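ARCHIVE CARD
CATEGORY: sequence design from structure
SOURCE FIELD: tokenized fold
FIELD CONTENT:
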């Protein structure tokens, strides 16, 4: 999976996140369960987007009403040293990205393994839930579906123990631990995206808030519970992969308890499934692409190509003083046999360098759809470019980008 796809996914998720935030503000959603559901769906979208973009599973819409244009030309051939210099920063960035991502993934795996060992070695209590006590646990926490308590928990007053268990059972019921792991995985992959870090923190805050509400809903005194949170906050756990009772936004949670804010109503399962049903088409739409093309089916036509830099003063529509495609070649003559046999159509964006006489002196493929080399659309489009005819009023080498579309005849 290329760095470009990850950057593309991060930008799309930023737009999704901005839209979710705006909707929540417009609806004045104050129920933490509603907000948690919205951001969980956003997290899932962030994890699915790269796969959809990488494998091209989302639809691509043809914007046939947009004029096909040449995006620019640069006088003179590009020096070979410049091309080499351009690739070096990309390689360095990829190395930096991979190093940071692997470091974060290693930290996540190390935390999971370490907490799993603590959970495995902890002494289970006789209970319908998976409750265990360990001397390595400093304050109550939840690891997946396992509730971990300090070794002295059995000597706690009944009211204290019941309040703690009400909080941790709410984590288990909501699967907060698993969502926390997904959020940390997402951050490890998209560590360069500030939304990933914010999303991880926000989901943890909301998980603790909804679990606090479960304690209050179970008729426990909010003032006494606030004192309990303050006490646990003085003894945080060392592992970040477990949901700990007093390690996230403690001060604001205590303020909410002291204000005696009524506990929020949990969402029914039908609402959660409805959110998933809405998520699927929304993510597919977010991963979709648009591509401007001419309605002509079997000729090489100019197309927009953002990868080419626009020269100052170069007309957007490739005017009379720019390189122009005169045709002279039919893409059907170069249609790849393997693709035609499988009845697969293709589109290729090609960039050519044209001399003062309009002859092609160099060509390269910018984009191929479908990208699989078994169809051979890239090489076929290169042949089309070599045999195409151009006019170049300029007295030096110029560049042009155009689309070659291979379409089956009805």
């Amino acid at each position: 999976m290329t760095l470009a796809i990850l950057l593309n996914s991060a930008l799309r998720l930023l737009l999704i996140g901005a839209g979710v935030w705006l909707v929540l503000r417009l609806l004045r959603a104050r129920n933490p369960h509603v907000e948690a559901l919205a951001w969980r769906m956003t997290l899932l979208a962030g994890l699915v987007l790269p796969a959809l973009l990488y494998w091209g599973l989302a639809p691509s819409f043809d914007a046939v009403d947009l004029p096909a244009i040449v995006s620019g030309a640069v006088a003179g051939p590009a020096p070979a040293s410049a091309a080499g210099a351009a690739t070096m920063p990309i390689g360095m960035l990829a190395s930096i990205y991979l190093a940071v991502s692997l470091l974060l993934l290693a930290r996540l795996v190390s935390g999971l393994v370490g907490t799993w060992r603590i959970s495995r070695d902890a002494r289970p209590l006789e209970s319908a839930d998976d409750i265990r006590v360990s001397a390595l646990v400093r304050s109550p926490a939840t690891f997946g579906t396992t509730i971990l308590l300090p070794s002295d928990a059995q000597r706690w007053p009944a009211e204290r123990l019941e309040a703690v268990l009400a909080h941790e059972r709410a984590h288990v019921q909501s699967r907060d631990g698993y969502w926390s792991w997904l959020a940390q995985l997402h951050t490890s992959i998209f560590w360069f995206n500030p939304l990933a870090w914010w999303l991880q923190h926000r989901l943890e805050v909301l998980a603790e808030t909804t679990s606090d509400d479960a304690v209050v809903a179970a008729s426990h005194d909010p003032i006494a519970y606030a004192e309990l949170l303050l006490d646990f906050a003085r003894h945080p756990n060392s592992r970040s992969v477990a949901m700990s009772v007093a390690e996230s936004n403690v001060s604001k949670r205590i303020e909410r308890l002291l204000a005696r804010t009524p506990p929020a109503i949990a969402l029914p399962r039908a609402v959660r499934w409805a959110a998933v049903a809405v998520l699927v088409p929304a993510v597919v739409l977010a991963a979709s692409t648009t591509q401007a093309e001419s309605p002509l089916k079997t000729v090489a036509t100019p197309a927009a190509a953002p990868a080419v830099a626009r020269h100052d003063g170069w007309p957007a529509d490739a005017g009379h003083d720019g390189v122009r495609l005169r045709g002279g070649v039919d893409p059907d003559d170069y249609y790849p046999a393997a693709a035609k046999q499988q009845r697969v159509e293709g589109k290729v964006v090609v960039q050519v360098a044209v001399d003062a006489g309009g002859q092609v002196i160099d060509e390269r493929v910018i984009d191929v759809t479908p990208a699989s080399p078994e169809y051979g659309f890239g090489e076929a489009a290169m042949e089309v470019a070599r045999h195409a005819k151009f006019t170049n009023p300029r007295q030096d080498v110029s560049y042009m980008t155009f689309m070659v579309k291979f379409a089956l005849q009805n």
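CARD ANNOTATION: DSSP finds eleven helices and 13 strands in the chain. The first helix runs from residue 3 to 27.
SHELF: design records, drawer C
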